[in-house]
Amino acid sequence: MKLVKTVAELQKIVKETKKAGKSIGLVPTMGALHEGHASLIKAAHAENDFTIVSDFVNPTQFGPTEDLDAYPRTLEHDCKLAEEMGADVLFAPSPKEMYPSRDMTWVEVTGDITKVLCGRTRPIHFRGVATVVSKLFNLAQPDKAYFGQKDAQQAQVLKRMVKDLFFPLEIRVMPIVREADGLAKSSRNVYLNKAERSAAVILSKALAKAKAAFEAGERDSAKLIALVTEMIQTEPLSNIDYVEMYQLPDLTPAEKTVTADHLLAVAVKFGTTRLIDNIILQK
Amino acid sequence: MKLVKTVAELQKIVKETKKAGKSIGLVPTMGALHEGHASLIKAAHAENDFTIVSDFVNPTQFGPTEDLDAYPRTLEHDCKLAEEMGADVLFAPSPKEMYPSRDMTWVEVTGDITKVLCGRTRPIHFRGVATVVSKLFNLAQPDKAYFGQKDAQQAQVLKRMVKDLFFPLEIRVMPIVREADGLAKSSRNVYLNKAERSAAVILSKALAKAKAAFEAGERDSAKLIALVTEMIQTEPLSNIDYVEMYQLPDLTPAEKTVTADHLLAVAVKFGTTRLIDNIILQK
Fold this sequence. Notes:
2 copies of one chain form a homodimer.
Chain A: E1 2-4, H1 7-19, E2 24-29, H2 35-47, E3 50-55, H3 75-84, E4 89-91, H4 95-98, E5 105-109, H5 112-115, H6 118-121, H7 125-140, E6 144-148, H8 152-165, E7 170-174, H9 194-199, H10 202-215, H11 221-233, E8 238-247, E9 252-253, E10 262-270, E11 273-281
Parallel strand pairs in A: 1-4, 2-3, 2-6, 3-4, 6-7
Antiparallel strand pairs in A: 8-9, 8-10, 10-11
Helix pairs in contact in A: 7-8, 10-11
Keywords (chains A, B): ATP-binding, Cytoplasm, Ligase, Nucleotide-binding, Pantothenate biosynthesis
EC number (chains A, B): 6.3.2.1
GO biological process, one term (chains A, B): pantothenate biosynthetic process
């Protein structure tokens, strides 16, 4: 596996790879790779001739009070894991490489899809994501790009961006990878102290309970939301940002009585650490 | 030459063309093709294996009081001219094909480059241009894309967009094509009545005078601007929107004493028709 730090070098490699007629899989990450990322890289490697993993903590998707500086950076570990999972290139550019101009060129998906859920408290987040992912798409020119279902809203936003701007690629969304006790794998889990780590398991438990209720026939969206909210609130260390349901794919308002596919998503703080998790309720 | 009206059909043709290892030239137009466009198509045909001309009056780059409905549509003529110049495909989609979602995904180049000149009176114009051209780039996947120097600011904005978002292609900017008396070819020239048409020649005359002064050694930007302004004002039917100079490539403020490459650009109304023209002052 090759560690690539400049745009020019990546462009050269991609040009040669395309010329050789190889298919390309891209796994965009912010580094601090864990088993969730590993599953994406493994899938990319299985489904494509050439796998590029990007490893870039993207400043434009962090708000001014968010954890940009604290975000874990583990490049050496990331290289090892990406190589083990079959990556051909790990692309780890500097912010200056990715943002060459003083003024920005933004890519922005508008509408409810970026305003609800995390978009409400993180108003610039998805503009930063759409912008950096557009750059990565144009650099890596992938046939398929891999994202985790853990960031459910991000996956929907990027699918919409690909549809609207006609990017010639397929977005593959892979299932959430969880710890043994159910906590969704996240680079931010390292922020949790011991008590918060134990408490955080309530998210997956509450969502699993809603899924079980749904599968047993509960179709009242308000009741499903209440069930999750009340269960999370039994955990004293939890501080709910949202527990919400939206229709897929465009995150339009939930039906009162669920008949179509819905996303049930939560964002909850434990101390200063904000965690997200979700399930899809499929008719 | 094939007339293509759907995104799906264009995607199929592009996929086959890329697979065959052919290079692709793209000429994005709003139709109403004239000799200026013809020169772009001719260049694309000469420099690439396969030439795609798009013919789409893009609604998102027109302001609410602008000439979207009046804009000339001449599809039959466009097909004939594009074919004569060597185009392989004329892509003439409906607005619904190009904008499939209710909400927009925008591409926007920010900073002075889109705020000066036409950006001041047409605040949403370049966002619409950047968005539709991004879509066309992703659809046609060109090696080279062709634009006219007549729309000088548009060319600079798109070069910046390509640089910032890493589109894997080259922007080729071709010289202004003029009528025998000097008027720059434009699809909007058909709006001019006979008196306005005669009056409009003052633009190219004034710019040519500034160029001659520059070549004779005049380096004072204020004097060069005044020279153009005063000459245009001798024409009673003219109504100046702007006469301005900016440094290339990013349209930063002009130097007081010119040492680098500058754009000297004008926008002037004749009746209700707004015309633009420009020259580059090259050191």
